[in-house]
Amino acid sequence: MKKILHFLFLASIIFAITSCSKQAKWNHEQKKALRDALNTYREMIYLQDLTDPEFVIFTDGVAEDIEVAYPVYTTFVQLPAVDDTLDMFVVTAIVEQLNESASNMRHIYPYRTLVKQGILPDKLSHEEQHLFYKCLAQKVNNYYTSPAEFLSDIIKSDTSAQSQIGKFQAECANDLFDWVIEVTEVDIIEPATTPSTQPKK
Q1: In which domain, by residue range, is 150 found?
Q2: Span between the terminal Cα atoms of the chain, in Å
Q3: Three-state DSSP string of 145-182
Q4: How would residue 180 be classed by pLDDT, with cut points 50, 70 and 90?
Q5: I need a labelling partner for 199 at 20 to 30 A (CA). Which of 47, 51, 128, 189 fits?
Q6: CB count, 10 Å around CB of 109?
Q7: Angle at CA 84, nearest 5°, toward 79 and 90?
Q8: Distances (CA, A) of 88 to 82, 93, 115, 155, 169
Q9: Number of structural domains the chain divides into
Q10: CA–CA gap between residue 164 and residue 140 (Å, rounded)
């Protein structure tokens, strides 16, 4: 009798664990809803420069992180600040990629865009471009306390941050390629004061 009771007790534990495991898994519709939410970040800075396959890999990684952190779908969607939580996972994933390789800075400041802006010379090799982004990343890391702080400033389009980054870009371009950004000075002419044309009373 004791053996039977012991067996039933173990069986109930195994059943409970199995049930929780099944309940924890996100179903197809829930996973699709999460993917749809992540797709709305396609035009976000950094992500907009990824190719479609790169973006799919990125969102797959974020979705996996969320599913691990919140095994039960309802726990995630019922969070008081679920949108902020989603933002946090996306930004964290971008920061991780920036930490992995300095060359990923190119997704924030694409090479062709920098050429059009006159910040970099045309026809740089991949190795030269890598050196530039490595230089830029080092300056950013020295200036900011964390990559997350840097990314936050860029997302907010902070003007002082943009100005500082522009200075870093110019310094790297000059140090590596003797490239000087020419700034054309424009003379501001004050408009001449014209006498009043109102008729005298």
Answers
A1: 106-182
A2: 120
A3: CCHHHHHHHHHCCCHHHHHHHHHHHHHHHHHHHCCCCC
A4: confident
A5: 189
A6: 21
A7: 115
A8: 10, 9, 32, 13, 28
A9: 2
A10: 9
The reply to whether 92 and 122 lie within a common domain is no
- In the numeric block, the tokens 């039933």 are attached to 8
The tokens describing 112, both together, are 């062709």
Contacts of 119 (CB under 8 A, 6+ apart): 166, 169, 170, 173, 181
How many helices and strands (H and E) does the chain possess?
A: 9, 0
Measured between alpha carbons, how far is 8 from 185 in angstroms, rounded to an integer? 87
Same domain, 37 and 120: no
Q: Degrees (nearest 5) of the Cα angle 196, 199, 201?
A: 120
In tens, the pLDDT along 66-113 reads: 999 999 999 999 999 999 999 999 999 999 999 998 889 999 999 999
**Calpha distance 166→199 (Å, rounded):** 53
- The C-alpha angle with vertex 101 and arms to 50 and 123, in degrees rounded to 5, equals 65
d(CA 169, CA 143): 13
Residue 84: its H or E element: helix 82-100
81 and 153 in a common domain: no
Contact at 8 Å (CB) between 58 and 41? no
Q: How far is CA 121 from CA 2, 20, 115, 133, 192, in A?
A: 83, 59, 6, 14, 41
